[in-house]
Amino acid sequence: MLPETCAWTSFPLTLKVMGWSVLLQLALGIPLAWVLARCSFRGKALLDALVTLPLVFPPIVIGYVLLLLLGREGWLLAWLPQGWRPHWVFSETGLVIAAVVAGLPLMVKPAQAAFAEMDDSLREVAATLGARPWQVIIKIELPLGRLGILAGLVLAAGRSMGEVGISLMLGGNISGRTETLSLAVYNHVLGSEADCANALSLVLAGLAALAFFLLRKFERPIAKTG
Fold this sequence. Notes:
Elements: H1 10-38, H2 44-56, H3 59-70, H4 92-116, H5 120-128, H6 133-144, H7 146-161, H8 165-171, H9 181-190, H10 194-225
Helix pairs in contact: 1-4, 1-7, 2-4, 3-8, 4-7, 4-8, 5-6, 7-10, 9-10
């Protein structure tokens, strides 16, 4: 029997945060991946480094930097009048931002590789037949890159679900309000509540297994039609 005293309210919050983060990672990740794969411009290396940074930099430090930037007295918001400054920190919005930042590199890199490996002759033929650039992207590049996009999406969703370091700084780890499943496991371990930590860890493991099952399920028909 699962312990009733565990922080089960963290489960719907985790799904909500993961859902929003996946939508934002799609909206940001696909354009970023395409730009990094297909465009040459000054500052490209810097943009690539910023996107990759969460993979190699300590999450708690990234969370602290975001706290300095996005707090109500933060560097990005201090110029706004007091009444106009959004409450991003220590809220569900802060958790979503943390999840997006943590998962974005894993969304971008597989999609970037997929776009970069495409045969240029396909684009040239489409352009010769009168296709506009946006039509080439929608009708050729996105369908051909769908496996990389799907793989990135699954990896980013999993990373968002398991995020702790950045979420601690931006979400505040407030019980019942900004406590995700991963933070709840952390809190139960600190409180020597092994039963709850084990139960919530199993839930996270089940969600991760489901994500990879879906990835494998969709990979087969894509591979056949690719």
